[in-house]
Structure formats: C-alpha cells, structure tokens
Amino acid sequence: MLVGLGAVSTTFIAGVENVRRGRALPIGSLSQMATIRLGKRTDKRTPKINEFVPLADLKDLVFAAWDPIPDDAFTAAVKAGVLDRHEHLEPIKDFLQNIKPMPAVFDQYYVKRLQGTNVKRGKNKRELAEQLREDMRNFKQSAKLDRIVIVWCASTEVFLTPGPAHQTLAAFEQAMEQNDQSIAPSMLYAYAALMEHVPFANGAPNLTVDLPVMEKLAEEHHVPIGGKDFKTGQTMMKSVLAPAFKARMLGLSGWYSTNILGNRDGEVLDDPESFKTKEESKLGLLEHILQPDLYPELYGKVYHKVRINYYPPRGDNKEGWDNIDIFGWLGYPMQIKVDFLCRDSILAAPIVLDLALFFDLAGRAGLSGIQEWLSFYFKSPQFAQGLYAEHDLFIQQTKLKNTLRWLMGEEQITHLGIEYYEYAEK
Fold this sequence. Notes:
Order of helices and strands: EHHHEHHHHEHHEHEHEHHHEEEHEH
CATH superfamily of the largest domain: NAD(P)-binding Rossmann-like Domain
Number of strands: 10
Structural class: alpha/beta
Largest sheet: 6 strands, parallel
C-alpha cells in the first residue's frame, strides 16, 4: 500500500507491471538485480539476492494507494510525465486504470502547495486514523492477501519537532482526539499501520515513525519500521564522495548543492516550511560521515549549503549541481564539480520495490522496530538510541548484505582476506 499516487508511486507500479510482463528489466533494484557473495572468494558462491533469501515474488504483489487527488494510476502517471506513454503506459493502461486512490488523510496546513478533493472527513484525527485502519483491513480481505507493507511516497510535510504528544501512546491518542497540530497526517498513517501490525517505511523526511511513541509501538506490536527520506540523486552522490575524501584524508572547505526540479515534489518544496524539513534531512549526512570532532583540521570548518528551486519546465528530470571545495597536501585547494541530470522517480521507484520486499522479509523474520540494516535506502536513517546514523553508502551496503547472510545462517563477510595468504598460518 502506497501513501501517495504521484510520480514515484505510479513509476513504481507501472515499472513492476512492465517487468512482470517481460517488457523491461528492474534496473536499480538490489532485490532483483544484485548478487551476494557467500563464503570465501575461492568458493565462487554468488547467487542473486532474490534466489538466496525468500523474498515475495513480483507476481504476488498487489497495489493500493491513498491520494488527495482522485486520478487513477494511469491518469496520474500520464500527468507525472516520467514514463513514455506509448512504450510503458498504454500497453498496461487497463491495469493502471483499475488502481484508484482511496480518500487520503490530508490537511493543507502540512503541505501548503497542494490541494485535493479526495479527502477523508472525521470529527477528529483519531477517527481519521481509524478510517485508515479500516482501509487496510478491507484491502487485505478484498484482495485476499497474506500480508501488507506500507511505503510513504507522498509529499514532504512542514517542519515539526518531537514534543510531549509524541512520547507515549496515551499522549498520542489524546492528541489525536484533540486535533493537536503536532500530529501530522503522516503520523496517522504510521499509527494506523502499527496498530494493524503492518510494516511501515517512510520515504519522506517527515518525522512520521521517527518518534518515541512509534518506536515503542513497533516493538510492542513486533512490526518493522524505518526511514527516512529516499536516498536518490544528490544525496546518494554525497554518500559516495564524502567517504572517499575521508578515506584519503582530504580536507573539505565547503560544499554547495543546488537542485532544480519541476514535479509535484518541487512544488511542495517551494514552500519554506516544507523545504526546512527536507533541508534538515540533506544537511546531516556530511557531518556524520566526516566526523569533524575527530578530524577538526580537515572538516571542522565546512560550509555546507543546500538549495532546492522549483522550475516547472524540468518536470521530474531533476538537476543536482554540486560545487565542492577540497584541499590536499600542505593545504593546497582543489575543486570538484558534479552535475547530475537525474530522473527523480526513476531512481526512487526501485527503492520503493526493495523496501516493500525487505520490510516484508523483516516482518516474517521477526525483526521488529527500527530496521537500521536498510539505511542504505535513506537520506536520514533512523537508528537506536545511543547510536549515530551510518551514512557511508558502502558501509550501508555491507550492513544490508551481512544482515541477509545472518538471516540465512551464512558467515559474515569482513573483507579481511588474510586467510588467503601463507603468513596467516604462522
């Protein structure tokens, strides 16, 4: 089940259906394309991930969504303009037209640049959450499903910070009944999912499940949760480049990042309050990777700036431009410039697929609460109290694959490699 039936969700749904019909490949999806090494390099055991772990099969996926705009998936996909209408949409038109969004929990206070008529009504937020729970139960029953997973693919809400209403279940439920402004729509979806024992992955930088009450509820109900904010374009590149600078002990003076995009996400982020939420998600990565407290001479005075500009002519084809000022031996300055002309939803769609399959696997394996092993997919990963987020893409990938090995009873891969050499025996 998807919260939001916009560019990301329709690209994901249409992509899966094209793959199921043999019309395309699931490029960008680790669960479908990647291999995993087992044992020593000399063992030459490298099955595909979906052959190694018991993931749900693509043919078994059934889709449903909520959205404040009443367009069916075909109409929404055409309007989004991500996929070629004649190559990837018209051949599956009937399938997409059958996916019509359920009325959403939506409040323009939290997403000021959007309007919608396909919206739930209720006397308070608690009642709206109960309606969401009923949607989940009805979908599971009508589609004859064994399990459900929910992925948030909707817009970025205004910036909020955790408060008293987010600490305990009693306080949260009372706040819902009182229509407390600190309870955003995304939190209602998360609450409803956890009460229905449904795994929840948060693809936006909203708080949503990154709250004490949600973490406790997830543990008590034995449900996997995780987030936040899909790591797609510019931030993915940062999580590759920043570890390289740190590995080589190259200093960083400044990193200026700007984005232009013209899809619904860009329109929403044109509102300063929603941008603040996104900015917080994007800014934290460098500090965590570079650890300026440990390397003050190299990273203690980094100037990091992030800008997002709404530019309608680009549509979903986002451009992320980075100017990076680094310094090396004896302090001599150097520059790196990155111009990533990416397709936002093309990068996000396989992430949605992987999260749906891996969160379902986690639920079946009894892994409840925060799924830090899936931080590979998020800009601002959730983590247990007392820890810090791991942002290095390659460490995240190792963590993901080692978790799969652990689940299947295989040895962890440390990449030590000393066992291959004679002196290891001495």
